[in-house]
Amino acid sequence: MSGFHKLTVKDITRETNQAISIGFDVPESLKDTFVFQAGQYVTLKMVINGQEIRRDYSLCSSPKSGALQVAVKEVKDGTFSSYANTVLKVGDLVEVAPPKGRFIFTPNDSKTKNIAAFAAGSGITPILSIIKCALEEEVHSKVILVYGNKTTSDTMFLDALLKLQQQYKERFSIQFVFSQEDGEDSIFGRIEKSTVNYVMKNKHKHIDVDAFYLCGPEAMIHTVKDVLTANDINKDTIHFELFKAAKPVDVNNDAPAHGNTKITITVDDETTTFDMPQKQTVLEAALDHDLDAPYSCQGGICSSCLARITEGAATMRQNNILTESEVAEGLILTCQAHPTTPTLAVDYDDV
């Protein structure tokens, strides 16, 4: 489940001055392992300057294409993103974990449905995969994209999106939003309440949208969600994935600082039991005991470290992923979870 496979970098494309897309060569023996759904991501692992680095990157290719491609935008002081943008080259080996993630689009060509996507910056990456999948595999469905950036030169996959718009001109509409450029047919500013209302209640008021996909910074996602729900959109039709959270805020301050728990962890069909301090997270304890538990961001933003509690209880100090019903079912982000009972059983395989 959490195993990595060494894949060769097949191609690198410069998308903007600060972003590249990376294609991997997947050998025939691993084709089934790397089958993915639109919207999913892979975890990349490399040793850089003697330190093991893991990062999650969404797949931007469509499942039907057979390609395994991610995009990496260089961020300030970003160890992996800087390396990828300046050092990584075709032919290099990168350890890649199988695709995963819950921000997914499942095509169904027997049903015509319309989707609207809101993306900002590098949040376009999984959205692009979803758009391609919807256009390719649902031949009657329509797609609306609202895409925010600073300028056109900062816009990842601009050419690819314009080509898709030309190819599917009756089914695919793009509304660009630029915060530092006043372009033709674009909106000046950021994706905010007025943007959402204009696109959904004016420009495309004749289209009944069946599902919404949001990806980008937390503030943008909350803005779009709030406007949609204020307009009586069913919250179950709104799907989102954070690419960058706001400053972490403890959502539960009851995590104990003292005491011990006897924890049982199952990962990759192997079960281990040991004592851990409750001030540690489940993931920290697992890694301290050399268990191959899956993880990446360790900040409660991705879902790489997802597991299920099968006995006992734990509290999460932050949760940007799981719904209330999923938490009630026992799902936890182990990088944020502290035990609150004398015994705790956690299963990484049962998710």
From TrEMBL:
Cofactors, names only: FAD
UniProt keyword annotations, A-Z: 2Fe-2S, FAD, Flavoprotein, Iron, Iron-sulfur, Metal-binding, Oxidoreductase
Instruction: Please report the name of this protein according to its UniProt entry.
Output: 2Fe-2S iron-sulfur cluster-binding protein
Give the species this sequence originates from: Mariniflexile ostreae
Domain (FAD-binding FR-type): give its ranges.
2-106
Source domain of life is Bacteria
* Keyword Transferase (UniProt): no
The answer on whether this UniProt entry bears the keyword Iron-sulfur reads yes
SUPFAM superfamilies for the chain: 2Fe-2S ferredoxin-like, Ferredoxin reductase-like, C-terminal NADP-linked domain, Riboflavin synthase domain-like
- One Pfam match, given by its short name, reads Fer2
2Fe-2S ferredoxin-type domain: residues covered: 261-351
